[in-house]
């Protein structure tokens, strides 16, 4: 379906706006300077007033204009209402002005007209301006933004194994299912419901497990000890000569372990906590917590009572020892977790601590829609596959039936068939097609409860349609990232859904392949990363293909297998090779996503034995280029390419100038003092009503000053857990043709040209400065963490 494409600038071009390729560029910093023929325009960082439904953004920003030979800058305020195009992979937002008003206070009409002419020449009114998504989010009040609603999730712990020596977790989805590798090779069986390469030789009655480039064997899959071996069954030397088995053939006969790992086997959702020797503890300043420093898991010891806390898939569990039974802790987490300093290596866990700004950030980021536009006259080339005749069963408490013997998410509603595929909806009068793009999805589909594995499709909606195109949107819920009643973002619906998936392996319908293409909460060490915008598999011993139930697939139409390395997720086909070898320490996070409407790839690898690191990345769409500039004064600048016309980011110039709502330009110095410029130079203003921010308090409270406070007490969390999930979901906005009630509607906002008459208060200015500082910190944090590489994102199968 080559007609598929990202919903980027093409939609905005229909509005006859002069839009460049700016959306493909990055936000390299502020302020930005535009120069031409001796004229100069400085644009300071935008200040966001509101972002209506993540579509229309109202912002103000200060500018400074130099004309001709005049050395003096004239300051002004630009107020704009802009259509937005979000590139979540690049973490940027292109602001495409719908309206723009320039004001130069205390200037004559003729001078103001001349200044406006220079500004319009250097920065044309219809030109897009690219801003970091994180800078924008720092300004937003979560209560005024559409958000994924909280749903009822399960907080029960999975089976948790612990080892202080090298170990791996081989997790089956239900009882092991063994099938012949090929029809002419009945003696060699392959386990299809695990993401490891597990074979069974009927002649020797032994199991063989490939771990990296070495083999292990046992005679008892459930209880037996695994030993290293180089004596492999003859069938492994005769594997089918296709790419599907290429990586296995390359390891026959393989190497032999000197010290084979311990192997944990589970037929239910499970996690593995692996430390390098006895647990080593590192105290967290300002708290009574100690971080276990020699593990990839998020593991802590709370010294009051010496209780362990473990974070997995956004859920907290506690135990009195690492070998004891674990119990849920998400609803009554100790307050110390919210006090972890931003500089601590464990600071990332605050995204999963109820009541923190980081938890609000995660939900906001998850709620921003991704849009895809398709041409209705291009028939989808995909085909739904069934094991035998299509079979459907009713989803409890709904009128919706779902296909129980297909790896695709196909539904039957009121005699019509609907298939949610790669973030779009297809429809047909037959379960086998032909399929066409759907412009209206039955409301009943959006009643699928979180307890059912197909709940994730309720986060894919039809945003709009014309006779020639359909625009679909999806939020992070489609990838299995749900908002819990505790006010945090969690991965998957939890242990009950995982058990349901496992149980269904044993019924008559699901004979050859995993029954549900949905997120498996456990079995991959799922960890949230704000920098990458979602949940990622942890770098641990969860299998060569990423865990999360990325088992093999069997296509009954062709009689062929597609193993874990070729499972596919919400963005299309995904190839994710070996992510971690716990014995050599070699890691690889390469992940490629291909779809019919674009492709993107990122990769990173590090080998501690050689000390070398390799990182790479590519994108299929147009990208801007950035080149370094040095001046003879020693100040640095980053020049944006002229095609994208984003100006030059001048590092030697402070990003401390603000546009007041009263039309005055303000500046904040390093000591926290404010001055104003109303057209005749800078004048001191009253000191802020609050004490000026210190370097520490500014970083820790910037977001909180711009957002409502959220209690982190046990009482409020418990109350949230018991009550929020039962709230009805609000209705959608009228513009949306989709029936699903998804997100809370934004409150009405003033128009782009509304002016605030009273003089800007220093309290308001401090709030703006706090938001800017926090946005800068988030942007820097995201860039730093992305450059450092990391594990691949958890993908749906």
Automatic annotation (TrEMBL):
Residues covered by region (Disordered): 601-797
Keyword list, A-Z: Signal
Signal peptide as annotated in the record: 1-23
Biased composition, class Polar residues, residue ranges: 764-780
This protein's record includes keyword Signal: yes
Low complexity: bias regions: 673-683, 711-745
Protein's name according to its UniProt entry: Carbohydrate-binding family V/XII
Annotated organism of origin: Desulfomicrobium baculatum (strain DSM 4028 / VKM B-1378 / X) (Desulfovibrio baculatus)
């Amino acid at each position: 379906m080559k007609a598929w494409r990202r919903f980027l600038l093409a939609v905005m071009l229909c509005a006859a706006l002069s839009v460049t390729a700016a959306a493909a560029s990055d936000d390299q910093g502020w302020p930005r300077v535009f120069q031409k023929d001796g004229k100069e325009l400085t644009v300071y960082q935008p200040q966001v007033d509101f972002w209506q439904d993540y579509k229309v953004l109202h912002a103000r920003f200060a500018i400074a204009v130099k004309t001709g030979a005049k050395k003096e800058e004239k300051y002004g305020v630009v107020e704009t209402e802009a259509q937005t195009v979000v590139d979540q992979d690049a973490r940027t937002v292109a602001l495409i002005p719908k309206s723009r008003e320039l004001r130069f206070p205390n200037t004559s009409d003729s001078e103001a007209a001349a200044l406006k002419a220079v500004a319009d020449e250097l920065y044309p009114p219809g030109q897009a301006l690219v801003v970091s998504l994180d800078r924008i989010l720092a300004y937003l009040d979560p209560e005024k933004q559409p958000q994924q609603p909280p749903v009822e999730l399960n907080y029960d712990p999975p089976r948790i194994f612990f080892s202080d020596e090298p170990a791996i977790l081989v997790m089956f989805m239900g009882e092991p299912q063994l099938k012949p590798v090929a029809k002419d090779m009945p003696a060699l069986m392959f386990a299809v419901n695990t993401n490891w390469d597990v074979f069974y030789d009927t002649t020797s009655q032994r199991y063989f497990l490939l771990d990296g480039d070495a083999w292990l064997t046992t005679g008892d899959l459930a209880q037996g000890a695994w030993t290293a071996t180089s004596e492999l069954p003859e069938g492994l030397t005769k594997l089918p000569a296709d790419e599907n088995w290429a990586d296995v053939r390359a390891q026959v006969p393989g190497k032999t372990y000197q010290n084979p790992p311990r192997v944990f086997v589970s037929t239910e959702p499970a996690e593995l906590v692996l430390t390098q020797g006895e647990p080593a503890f590192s105290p967290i300043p300002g708290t009574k917590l100690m971080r276990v420093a020699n593990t990839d898991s998020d593991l802590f010891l709370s010294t009051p009572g010496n209780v362990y806390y473990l974070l997995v898939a956004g859920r907290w569990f506690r135990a009195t020892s690492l070998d004891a039974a674990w119990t849920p802790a998400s609803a009554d987490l100790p307050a110390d977790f919210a006090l972890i300093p931003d500089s601590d290596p464990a600071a990332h866990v605050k995204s999963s601590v109820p009541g923190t700004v980081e938890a609000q950030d995660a939900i906001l980021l998850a709620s921003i829609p991704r849009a895809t536009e398709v041409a209705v006259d291009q028939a989808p080339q995909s085909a739904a596959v069934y094991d035998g005749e299509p079979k459907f069963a009713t989803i409890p408490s709904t009128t919706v039936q779902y296909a129980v013997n297909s790896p695709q998410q196909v539904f039957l509603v009121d005699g019509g068939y609907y298939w949610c595929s790669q973030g779009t909806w297809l429809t047909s009068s037959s379960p086998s097609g032909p399929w066409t793009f759907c412009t209206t999805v039955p409301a009943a589909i959006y009643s699928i409860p979180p307890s059912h594995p197909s709940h994730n499709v309720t986060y894919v909606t039809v945003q709009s349609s014309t006779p020639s195109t359909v625009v679909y949107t999806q939020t992070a819920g489609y990838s299995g990232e749900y908002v819990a009643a505790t006010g945090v973002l969690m991965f998957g619906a939890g242990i009950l859904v995982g058990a349901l998936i496992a149980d269904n392996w044993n019924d008559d319908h699901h004979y050859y392949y995993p029954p549900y293409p949905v997120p498996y909460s456990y079995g991959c060490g799922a960890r949230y990363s704000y920098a990458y915008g979602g949940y990622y598999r942890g770098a641990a011993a969860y299998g060569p293909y990423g865990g999360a139930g990325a088992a093999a697939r069997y296509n009954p139409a062709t009689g062929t297998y597609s193993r874990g390395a070729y499972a596919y997720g919400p963005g299309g086909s995904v190839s994710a090779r070996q992510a971690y070898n716990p014995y050599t320490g070699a890691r690889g996070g390469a992940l490629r996503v291909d779809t019919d409407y674009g492709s993107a790839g990122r990769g990173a690898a590090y080998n501690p034995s050689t000390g070398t690191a390799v990182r790479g990345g590519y994108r299929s769409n147009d990208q801007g280029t950035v080149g370094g500039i040095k001046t003879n004064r020693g100040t640095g600048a980053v020049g944006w390419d002229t095609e994208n016309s984003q100006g030059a980011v001048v590092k030697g110039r402070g990003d401390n100038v603000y546009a007041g709502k009263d039309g005055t330009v303000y500046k904040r110095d390093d000591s926290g003092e404010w001055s104003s410029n109303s057209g005749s130079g800078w004048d001191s203003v009253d000191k802020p009503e609050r004490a000026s921010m210190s370097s520490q308090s500014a970083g820790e409270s910037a977001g909180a000053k711009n957002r409502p406070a959220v209690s982190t007490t046990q009482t409020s969390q418990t109350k949230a857990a018991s009550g929020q999930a039962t709230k009805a979901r609000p209705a959608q906005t009228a513009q949306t043709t989709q029936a699903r009630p998804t997100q809370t509607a934004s409150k009405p906002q003033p128009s782009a040209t509304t002016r605030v008459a009273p003089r800007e208060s220093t309290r308001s200015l401090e709030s703006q400065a706090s938001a800017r500082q926090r946005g800068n910190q988030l942007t820097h944090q995201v860039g730093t963490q992305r450059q450092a590489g990391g594990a691949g994102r958890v993908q749906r199968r």
